[in-house]
Amino acid sequence: MDGVTDVAAAVESTVDALVSVLDAAGLAQHPRVPPAQLRVLAIIAQNKHTNMSRLAEALEVVPSSASRLCDRLEATGLLRRLPDPRDRREVRLLLTPAARRLLDQLRERRRRALEEVLERMAPADRQQLVQSLRAFARVAVGEPGGETGGLRTA
User: Fold this and answer.
1) Whole-number Å distance between alpha carbons of 111 and 107
2) All structural domains of the chain with their residue ranges
3) Is it true that the peptide bond before 31 is cis, omega within 30 degrees of 0?
4) CATH of the domain spanning 4-120
5) Which single residue of 29, 32, 86, 139 has CA 20 to 30 Å from 110?
């Protein structure tokens, strides 16, 4: 693997394998929540002041599509919509305790699935993987010590 193109292909292949491991861990969840709805829950979990407009923007969908996703989540008891105390025209989206438990369980299943794969690697390979991932992250977000011109994450 000499060129950057070969490395990019290897990274892409590895990402596909990683997604497969994470997806397989997600299939064991009960109740079964579709990926689009899980994404909504994850966005709301990461942003305490999420409203419908911000959610639609994060999902890159029209507000009516985001609202339909929220309708389904609210019907299953995973989401609550409340008037925003700062602006009653806005609706705040809040996770229920059941949604938080679901996300915690999913995170734990994914972590265990990753651990199972990592345990099959030689310790030296695991250490090299950690170093390489850290170097990639530094460059990708343009941190000090990384190359300039990296991608900025939101």
Assistant:
1) 6
2) 4-120, 122-154
3) yes
4) 1.10.10.10
5) 139
Q: pLDDT per residue over 96-145, tens digit each?
A: 999 999 999 999 999 999 999 999 999 999 999 999 999 999 998 887 66
Q: What is the residue type of 116?
A: E
Residue 30 has pLDDT above 90, yes or no: no
Q: Which residue, among 102, 82, 101, has the nearest Cα to 92 in the 3D structure?
A: 82
For 128, the token pair is 């090299």
Phi/psi of residue 21, nearest 5 degrees: -65, -45
31 three-state secondary structure: coil
> CA dist 92 to 60, 98, 149, Å?
18, 18, 36
Residue spans of beta strands (DSSP E) within 1-142: 79-84, 87-95
Alpha carbon distance 39, 99 (integer Å): 12
Given this model, what pLDDT does residue 63 score? 92
Distance from C-alpha of 53 to C-alpha of 64, rounded to nearest angstrom: 10
What does pTM read for this prediction?
A: 0.76
HSE toward the beta carbon, residue 84, CA cutoff 13 A? 14
pLDDT at 153: 43
